[in-house]
């Protein structure tokens, strides 16, 4: 096994944008305006991507696609997640929860607010069972994200009150997906779309979260624990000012995305925070109603 070197997070890396691989309008009517909020894992020889489509009627609905390569996603079939379908179900996160031997899809919906679905077969988009409730209350909103260590599951989310805060709550692994404690503030003066990962190179946990003080961009925070406390590494870790293009100049915004992980389980592990493949939603135009923004998906990397 190749030894991973200890790494200190680079606060202002250069990012290289590859071409878009998922375009809005490829799965009409579900993604008429936008393809956004992706979650991705590599499993069984394929990249599995779940994402949100913005339709003409004001709905946000989830889609699935898969391919053996990232570039292969461009022409892969898109499938509406009909088995768990609602007018409003979006912003997914997918992982395999080893203690229960089940795939979990975490998302926000109109039935429970914070919802999940499960399956034993990630490759079958019609096999998901849900929506089911996490049973949480207090400071709810959107962009729910779960990471686990050896004892606890932690859930992060942005509240709907516009406070600029990010909340975290936890439950024991044995009680997951229910039994959550009260939420507490993880960080403040930020926006939405938080993800947390453990970097195998240095053993630290890294939180990335989107802000919008200068277009859309990502902050970087670090901690010795999956639940915090968090210290800021960079306000503008991934943003248009350090973005270069390997293909067309398809985005000047780095918005809601997810890292391609080293594995696929609940621990959310990456190899190295300085060698990240980041599947993001991007656009060059943020004007007009949010529902009608033409988001597409593509990978940016902080290494050559």
UniProtKB/TrEMBL annotation:
<dbReference type="GO" id="GO:0005576">
    <property type="term" value="C:extracellular region"/>
</dbReference>
<keyword id="KW-0378">Hydrolase</keyword>
<keyword id="KW-0326">Glycosidase</keyword>
<dbReference type="GO" id="GO:0046373">
    <property type="term" value="P:L-arabinose metabolic process"/>
</dbReference>
<keyword id="KW-0964">Secreted</keyword>
<dbReference type="InterPro" id="IPR005193">
    <property type="entry name" value="GH62_arabinosidase"/>
</dbReference>
<dbReference type="GO" id="GO:0046556">
    <property type="term" value="F:alpha-L-arabinofuranosidase activity"/>
</dbReference>
<keyword id="KW-0732">Signal</keyword>
<dbReference type="Pfam" id="PF03664">
    <property type="entry name" value="Glyco_hydro_62"/>
</dbReference>
<dbReference type="InterPro" id="IPR023296">
    <property type="entry name" value="Glyco_hydro_beta-prop_sf"/>
</dbReference>
<protein>
    <recommendedName>
        <fullName>non-reducing end alpha-L-arabinofuranosidase</fullName>
        <ecNumber>3.2.1.55</ecNumber>
    </recommendedName>
</protein>
């Amino acid at each position: 096994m190749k030894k991973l070197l200890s790494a200190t997070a680079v606060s202002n890396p250069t990012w290289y944008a590859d071409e878009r691989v998922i375009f809005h309008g490829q799965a009409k009517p579900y993604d008429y305006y936008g393809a956004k909020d992706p979650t991705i894992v590599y499993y069984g020889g394929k990249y599995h991507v779940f994402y949100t489509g913005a339709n003409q009627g004001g709905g946000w609905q989830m889609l699935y696609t898969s391919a053996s390569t990232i570039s292969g996603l461009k022409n892969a079939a898109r499938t509406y997640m009909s088995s768990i379908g609602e007018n409003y179900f979006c912003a997914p996160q997918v992982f395999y929860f080893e203690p229960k031997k089940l795939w979990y899809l975490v998302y926000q919906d109109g039935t429970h607010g914070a919802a999940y679905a499960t399956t034993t077969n990630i490759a079958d988009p019609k096999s998901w069972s849900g929506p089911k409730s996490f049973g949480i209350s207090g400071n709810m909103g959107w962009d729910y994200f779960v990471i686990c260590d050896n004892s606890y599951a932690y859930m992060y989310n942005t509240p709907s009150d516009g406070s600029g805060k990010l909340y975290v709550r936890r439950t024991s692994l044995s009680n997951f997906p229910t039994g959550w404690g009260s939420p507490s503030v993880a960080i403040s003066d930020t926006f939405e779309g938080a993800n947390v990962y453990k970097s195998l190179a240095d053993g630290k946990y890294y939180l990335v979260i989107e802000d919008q003080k200068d277009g859309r961009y990502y902050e970087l925070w670090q901690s010795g624990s999956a639940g915090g406390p968090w210290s800021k590494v960079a306000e503008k870790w991934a943003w248009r000012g350090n973005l270069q293009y390997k293909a067309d100049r398809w985005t000047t915004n780095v918005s809601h995305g997810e890292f391609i992980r080293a594995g696929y389980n609940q621990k959310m592990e990456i190899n190295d925070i300085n060698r990240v493949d980041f599947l993001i939603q991007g656009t060059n135009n943020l004007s007009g109603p949010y529902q009608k923004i033409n988001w597409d998906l593509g990978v940016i990397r902080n290494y050559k």
